[in-house]
Design brief:
The complex is a heterodimer of chains A (456) and B (95). In chain A, helix 5 packs parallel to helix 7 and helix 13 packs parallel to helix 17. The radius of gyration of chain A is 25 Å and the shape is elongated. Chain A is an alpha/beta fold and 456 residues long. In chain A, helix 16 links the parallel strand 4 and strand 5. Chain A is 59% helix and 7% strand. Chain B has 95 residues and is mainly α. Chain B starts with a helix and ends with a helix. The C terminus of chain B is likely disordered. The chains are: A alpha/beta (456), B mainly alpha (95). Chains A and B meet through helix 1, helix 2, helix 3, helix 4 and helix 8 of A and helix 1, helix 2, helix 3 and helix 4 of B.
C-alpha cells in the first residue's frame, strides 16, 4: 500500500506536529498551544488521506467522518468539566474500537500476510477490542449508569480463562492465516467480552488508573495496526501514546500505592480485621464551621471527588475569597489521586478561578498542616485516612496521604456516614479534633458563605 | 514495510513518549492523558484507508464503523483537551 510522496510527506508532518504538540502540553505555559499544534497535525493527516490513489467509498468516508466527528465535537463541547474523565474514557474506547475494526477488515479480506504482520494485527485487535469495551464500562461507572462493581465468583479464574481463550484463538488465527470467518468472529467476541469482564469488578476509585491504562492500550493497538497498514504516522503516534500512557499509568498507580496488578486483579477489601477505631463521629453545623474558619489564621482545603460530583468548586472559591477578605490564609491541598483522574481537582479549581499559587501538591503542603487552624475536607475520604500510615491490615496501607489530621481542627463535608470508594472506615472522622458537616458539598459551601457574610 | 525499520520506529517512538511524560507537573496529567488520547485518534487515517479499500458490504460496514469511531476519538479528544487547557490559559491572562 504505497502512497505518493506528498501524502507520505503530509503524514510525516502530521506525526511531527503530534510530537511537538505533546511536548508543548507538558508545560502549563505552552499547553494550549500544544493541543492546537497537534490539532493541525490531525487535520493535515486526514486531508492528505483523501489523496491516497485508488481509494473507494469516498462518500461513505466523508459521511462517517462528519457523523462520528460531529457527534463527538458537540458532546465534547456540552459536557461539564466535572464529567471530563468519563468523556476521555469513551473517546479513548472509540479509538480502540476503530483499531480493532481496522484489523477486522484486514482479516476479512485476508490481507494480513506474513508472521509479523498477522501477529501485530491480532495483538492490535485484541488490545483495541479490550480497550473498547473496557472503556465503555469505565464510562458507565463514572457516569453513574453502572453503580456497583460486579464481581463474578472466581473472577480471576474467569479473567485468566477468557484471556487464554482469546490468546489461543489469536494464535490459531496467526497459524491458519487466512483464518476462517467463524474463527475471526469468535476471536473478536471473546476479546470484547474480556474487556467487559475485566473492567466490571473494578471500583470507581481505581478508574483513573484504568482509563489511563486503556489509553495506553489504544495507543499500542493503533501503533500495531499502523504497522499492518504500513503507515508510519500511525505507528509513531500510537507508540508514543502507548509509552507515555504506560508511564502515566505507573505514576498514578504509584501515587495510590497500589501496584497495577492489584488494581486489575484484587478487589479493595480489608485484609483481615483492621485496627479498632475508637471514638465517635461528631457533627457540626454550618454556623460553627464558618466561625471556626472565619477566626482562624490559616485554613487548608482538601477537595476530593465529592466536590466534583456536587459541582461545588465555584462556591468553594467564593467561600475562600470571603475568608481571605477576613484575613485568613487559605491554601488548597491536592492529593495526586484526588478525584477521578490525576490533576482532576486542579482542572476544576482552575475552572472556578482559583489561582495556581494557592494550590499545592502533597509533598509541598504536608508539612503545613501542623500550623493550620482548620483543615476543611470537602468530599475527600481515603486520601486523608490516617489508617494508611499505621494500620497494616488496611487495603490502603502505605498510600501517601494528606496529613489533615495534624491540623488543630478538621471539618469534613460529607454526604453521609458511609465509607469512601475503597470501602474503608476512615479513622480521621473519629478523632477528637474532627467535626462532620453532613450534606452535599455545594449547598453546604453555600450555607457557610451565608454565615460568613453575616459575620462581617 | 521493512520489519526491522519498523522496529526502530517502535523503539524511538516509545522512547519519545516516555521522555515527554517523564517531567510533567501533576496538574497537567489529566490534560496530557486527554491530549495523548486525542493523538491516537490518528487511527482515523488508518480507518479511512481500510474503508477506502473495502469491497464487500460487510467490509464497508465495518470500515464505516471504524472511521466514525476514529473521527469521534479525534474530534472529542481535541475538544475536551482544548477546553481543559483553555482554562489554564485564561488564568494566566488575568494574572
Amino acid at each position: 500500500m504505497t502512497a505518493p510522496f506528498y501524502v507520505q510527506g503530509a503524514w510525516f508532518v502530521g506525526a511531527a506536529l503530534f510530537i511537538f504538540g505533546l511536548k508543548g502540553m507538558s508545560s502549563p505555559a505552552s499547553a494550549r498551544r500544544g493541543i492546537v499544534i497537534a490539532g493541525y497535525g490531525m487535520l493535515i493527516a486526514i486531508a492528505a488521506t483523501f489523496l491516497v490513489p485508488g481509494l473507494h467509498n469516498l462518500g461513505l468516508i466523508a459521511l462517517a467522518l462528519v457523523l462520528g466527528g460531529g457527534a463527538a465535537w458537540i458532546s465534547g463541547q456540552k459536557v461539564k468539566m466535572t464529567d471530563m474523565p468519563q468523556m476521555v474514557a469513551i473517546y479513548n474506547g472509540m479509538g480502540g474500537g476503530a483499531a480493532a475494526a481496522i484489523a477486522a477488515i484486514e482479516f476479512a479480506r485476508g490481507d494480513a500476510h506474513g508472521l509479523v504482520t498477522t501477529t501485530l494485527a491480532v495483538l492490535g485487535a485484541l488490545i483495541g477490542a479490550v480497550s473498547f469495551t473496557g472503556s465503555c464500562v469505565a464510562w458507565a461507572k463514572l457516569q453513574g449508569v453502572l453503580r456497583k462493581a460486579y464481581r463474578l465468583p472466581a473472577q480471576n479464574a474467569v479473567n485468566v480463562t477468557l484471556a487464554a481463550v482469546a490468546i489461543g484463538l489469536g494464535l490459531s488465527m496467526i497459524a491458519l492465516a487466512p483464518a476462517q470467518p467463524q474463527l475471526i468472529i469468535g476471536f473478536f467476541v471473546v476479546a470484547l467480552v474480556l474487556g467487559l469482564i475485566v473492567t466490571l469488578p473494578i471500583g470507581g476509585a481505581d478508574m483513573p488508573v484504568v482509563i489511563s491504562l486503556f489509553n495506553a492500550f489504544t495507543g499500542l493497538a493503533v501503533g500495531f495496526e499502523g504497522y499492518v497498514l504500513g503507515n508510519p504516522a500511525l505507528i509513531i503516534a500510537g507508540i508514543v501514546v502507548g509509552a507515555a500512557g504506560t508511564l502515566l499509568t505507573q505514576l498514578m498507580a504509584k501515587a495510590m500505592n497500589r501496584p497495577l496488578s492489584n488494581i486489575l486483579f484484587t478487589p479493595m477489601v480489608a485484609s483481615g480485621p483492621g485496627e479498632a477505631i475508637s471514638g465517635t463521629m461528631k457533627e457540626v453545623g454550618a454556623i460553627d464551621a464558618a466561625a471556626m474558619m472565619r477566626y482562624a489564621s490559616k485554613v487548608i482545603i482538601v477537595p476530593g471527588y465529592g466536590m466534583a460530583v456536587a459541582h461545588a468548586q465555584h462556591k468553594v472559591w467564593e467561600m475562600t475569597e470571603l475568608l481571605e477578605e477576613a484575613g485568613v490564609e487559605v491554601k488548597f491541598a491536592i492529593h495526586p489521586v484526588a478525584g477521578r483522574m490525576p490533576g482532576h481537582m486542579n482542572v476544576l479549581l482552575a475552572e472556578a478561578g482559583v489561582p495556581y499559587d494557592k494550590i499545592f501538591d502533597l509533598e509541598e503542603i504536608n508539612g503545613e498542616f501542623g500550623q493550620a487552624d482548620v483543615a476543611l475536607v470537602i468530599g475527600a475520604n481515603d486520601v486523608v485516612n490516617p489508617s494508611a500510615r499505621t494500620d497494616k491490615a488496611s487495603p490502603i496501607y502505605g498510600m501517601p496521604i494528606l496529613d489533615a489530621d495534624k491540623a488543630q481542627n478538621v471539618i469534613v463535608i460529607k454526604r453521609g456516614k458511609g465509607t469512601g470508594y475503597s470501602g474503608v472506615e476512615n479513622a480521621l472522622f473519629y478523632t477528637d479534633n474532627c467535626r462532620m458537616l453532613y450534606g452535599d458539598a455545594q449547598p453546604m459551601a453555600g450555607e457557610i458563605i451565608q454565615q460568613l457574610k453575616s459575620m462581617t | 514495510m521493512d520489519g526491522l525499520l519498523a522496529l526502530y520506529i517502535f523503539m524511538l517512538a516509545a522512547f519519545t513518549g516516555y521522555e515527554i511524560i517523564a517531567k510533567v507537573p501533576v496538574i497537567l496529567h489529566t490534560p496530557l492523558m486527554s491530549g495523548s488520547n486525542f493523538v491516537h485518534g490518528v487511527v482515523v487515517v488508518g480507518a479511512m484507508i481500510a474503508l477506502g479499500h473495502a469491497e464487500t458490504p460487510l467490509e464497508q460496514a465495518i470500515g464505516f464503523f471504524a472511521v466514525a469511531l476514529g473521527a469521534a476519538n479525534a474530534a472529542g479528544g481535541y475538544v475536551v483537551t482544548e477546553r481543559m487547557l483553555g482554562m489554564f490559559k485564561k488564568k494566566e491572562g488575568t494574572q
